[in-house]
Structure formats: structure tokens, C-alpha cells
Amino acid sequence: MEIADRPQPPTGAARLLFRAPVHLYRWGLGPLLGGRFLLLNHVGRTSGRRRRTVLEVVDRTPGGAYVVCSGFGPRADWYRNVLAHPRVLVQVGARRFAAEAEPPAADEGAGFFVGYARRHPRAAVRLARMMGFVLDGSEEDFRAAGRELPFVRLHPRA
């Protein structure tokens, strides 16, 4: 595995394109995205304002938690926000629930990325490239990249 160049979060027109799925949820069309994406409602770490981000679901754990990843690294606003304020609201399709955000250990994140690559091999290669990783497609390369990525587990709260 080689880290070529870690991308910056999108700005301008690219940011508008990345934000488009948020509008689907606002218009009540979130179920069209199925269970592969979720809407994360979180609080800004400095502003205290409500924020919304649509993220791809990397994995589901037996306890009903969803695992997501910050493709733009640990400097992504949503990631820093949930570390500062881990109580969040999640919507997957039409289902909404309160959750607690928790970053897993790096080795656990490696396992999540390997599992994602097994389920979605072409998407995993494209995402890795977009995130600045040059991978040979081997499980060990996906595991190494997964150790570098910031994952978050979203546990449902009672």
C-alpha cells in the first residue's frame, strides 16, 4: 500500500454535488438510498448548530450499530464534530434513531475495510483511490489502508 496524496474535502461545485443526498433526505426521499447510506445529524463542535451529512455504511455490527468512515480523513468536519459531541441522530432509509458515536481501534477499522472490499470490490478500489491510497487489491493492502482511515461506530441509544 502506498499513500499517494490525501485529498482535501471538496469545495465549490464539488461540495454541492457531495451534499446532494442530504437534500433527498430533506425532501423525504431518503428511502431511495436504501440501507447503503445514512443521514447523520450531528452538532457543530464550535458553532453548536445542527449539521447533516450523508455517509456510506461500511458495515453493520451484531448489536445493530452502523459503521461509517471519513473518506477525507480525520480533518473532515463531521468526523471532528462527532468526536466532540458523540450524541447523534441517524436516519437509514425511513428509520430514525438516536445513537452514540465511537471511534473503533485501528485494527478493528482494518477489518471493517477488508469486509467492505469483499462485499464491494470495485467500489472499494475506487474509494481507496479517491482517498489517496494506491492499492494492489490484496486483502493485506485493504487492511493496511483500513488502519489509516478514521472509522466511527454509531451505537443505537435506548
Automatic annotation (TrEMBL):
Catalyzed reactions per annotation: oxidized coenzyme F420-(gamma-L-Glu)(n) + a quinol + H(+) = reduced coenzyme F420-(gamma-L-Glu)(n) + a quinone
Pfam families (alphabetical): F420H2_quin_red
Domain of life: Bacteria
Family: Belongs to the F420H(2)-dependent quinone reductase family.
NCBIfam families hit by this protein: hi_GC_TIGR00026 (TIGR00026)
Name recorded for this polypeptide: Nitroreductase family deazaflavin-dependent oxidoreductase
